């Protein structure tokens, strides 16, 4: 079989930056604590743990006084920074610049809506680290929507400021925006700002073309990756013979029956070395 790795897949700028800073800190200090998984990829997290990184929760922060705590690319709400200062924790802040800009936009949106009695709505995955950081920027409530059904929680008689988690689907954002305007008492009072990261969103059209060129697609990403779920669906729509794995051990021989070509691709949280491992394993398959 011909096996090809998508050159556009793999870590985005924000994740590359975070991993690099983590490796530098580990080399200097030998031990660093990460507030949550540094990246939503179990295999990459395990690699960094072998270098001395420990993943901790917010509840464990009181035990870390005097130590270094890593803020991953997803960002954190201001309350985390205040608590770290109170506890004497040194922060290594690797918040993605795109996420940091969106955090500031959330604060600005709330101020604008406060003046007109409006509401701020974010397209995002509930419980996702980035979304928690975004909704925690201000004390006022921020509505989080994942699907069209979630729009029922919005008061369409009031102004709406619509934003998005950086790794969401552009088409879904536009669809929900259109639905909001169709339901709003005054469509002109729906202010939508597409805050989706273009380094991420531009992969959708590329992956659609890439997936269509092969008999089989193997999409490599962590189970926790929100971006991975979006991009895998792009592949599956373009090629029904698309399969999602976390690592090479999950490959199944029957997937490759009759296949002459296999494309390997992944999420913005998937390291290149892991896609190469999967590609090597696929090359050894006997269709």
From TrEMBL:
Dimethylallyl diphosphate binds at residues 40, 74, 128, 225-227, 269. Pathway: Isoprenoid biosynthesis; isopentenyl diphosphate biosynthesis via DXP pathway; isopentenyl diphosphate from 1-deoxy-D-xylulose 5-phosphate: step 6/6; Isoprenoid biosynthesis; dimethylallyl diphosphate biosynthesis; dimethylallyl diphosphate from (2E)-4-hydroxy-3-methylbutenyl diphosphate: step 1/1. Belongs to the IspH family. Keywords: 4Fe-4S, Iron, Iron-sulfur, Isoprene biosynthesis, Metal-binding, Oxidoreductase. (2E)-4-hydroxy-3-methylbut-2-enyl diphosphate binds at residues 40, 74, 128, 166, 225-227, 269. The keyword Metal-binding applies. GO terms for molecular function: 4 iron, 4 sulfur cluster binding; 4-hydroxy-3-methylbut-2-enyl diphosphate reductase activity; metal ion binding. This is 4-hydroxy-3-methylbut-2-enyl diphosphate reductase. Transmembrane segments: none annotated. Binds 1 [4Fe-4S] cluster per subunit. Its EC number is 1.17.7.4. [4Fe-4S] cluster binds at residues 12, 96, 197. The active site is at 130 (proton donor). GO terms for biological process: dimethylallyl diphosphate biosynthetic process; isopentenyl diphosphate biosynthetic process, methylerythritol 4-phosphate pathway; terpenoid biosynthetic process. NCBIfam families: ispH_lytB, PRK01045.1-1. The keyword Oxidoreductase applies. Its cofactor is [4Fe-4S] cluster. It catalyses: isopentenyl diphosphate + 2 oxidized [2Fe-2S]-[ferredoxin] + H2O = (2E)-4-hydroxy-3-methylbut-2-enyl diphosphate + 2 reduced [2Fe-2S]-[ferredoxin] + 2 H(+); dimethylallyl diphosphate + 2 oxidized [2Fe-2S]-[ferredoxin] + H2O = (2E)-4-hydroxy-3-methylbut-2-enyl diphosphate + 2 reduced [2Fe-2S]-[ferredoxin] + 2 H(+). InterPro entries: LytB/IspH. Isopentenyl diphosphate binds at residues 40, 74, 128, 225-227, 269. Catalyzes the conversion of 1-hydroxy-2-methyl-2-(E)-butenyl 4-diphosphate (HMBPP) into a mixture of isopentenyl diphosphate (IPP) and dimethylallyl diphosphate (DMAPP). Acts in the terminal step of the DOXP/MEP pathway for isoprenoid precursor biosynthesis. Pfam families: LYTB.
């Amino acid at each position: 079989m011909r096996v090809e790795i998508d050159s556009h897949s793999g870590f985005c700028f924000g994740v590359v930056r975070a991993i690099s800073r983590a490796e530098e800190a580990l080399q200097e200090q030998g031990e660093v604590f990460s507030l949550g998984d540094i990246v939503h990829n179990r295999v990459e997290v395990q690699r960094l743990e072998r270098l001395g990184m420990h993943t901790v929760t917010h509840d464990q922060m009181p035990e870390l006084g005097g130590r270094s705590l890593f803020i991953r690319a997803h960002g954190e709400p201001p309350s985390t920074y205040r608590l770290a200062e109170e506890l004497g924790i040194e922060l290594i802040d690797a918040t993605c610049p795109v996420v940091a800009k969106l955090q500031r936009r959330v604060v600005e949106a709330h101020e604008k809506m406060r003046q007109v009695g409006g509401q701020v709505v974010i397209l995002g995955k509930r419980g996702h680290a980035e979304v928690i950081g975004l909704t925690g920027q201000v004390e006022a409530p921020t509505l989080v929507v994942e699907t069209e059904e979630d729009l029922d929680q919005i008061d369409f008689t009031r102004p709406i400021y619509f934003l998005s988690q950086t790794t969401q689907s552009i088409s879904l954002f536009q669809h929900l925006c259109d639905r909001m305007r169709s339901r709003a008492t005054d469509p002109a009072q729906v202010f939508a700002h597409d805050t989706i990261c273009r380094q991420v969103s531009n992969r959708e059209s590329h992956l659609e073309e890439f997936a269509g060129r092969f008999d089989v697609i193997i999409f490599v990403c962590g189970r926790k990756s929100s971006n991975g779920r979006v991009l895998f669906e792009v592949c599956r729509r373009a090629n029904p013979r698309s399969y999602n794995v976390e690592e090479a051990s999950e490959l199944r021989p029957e997937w490759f029956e009759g296949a002459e070509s296999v494309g390997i691709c992944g999420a913005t949280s998937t390291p290149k070395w892991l896609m190469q491992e999967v590609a090597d394993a696929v090359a050894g398959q006997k269709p």
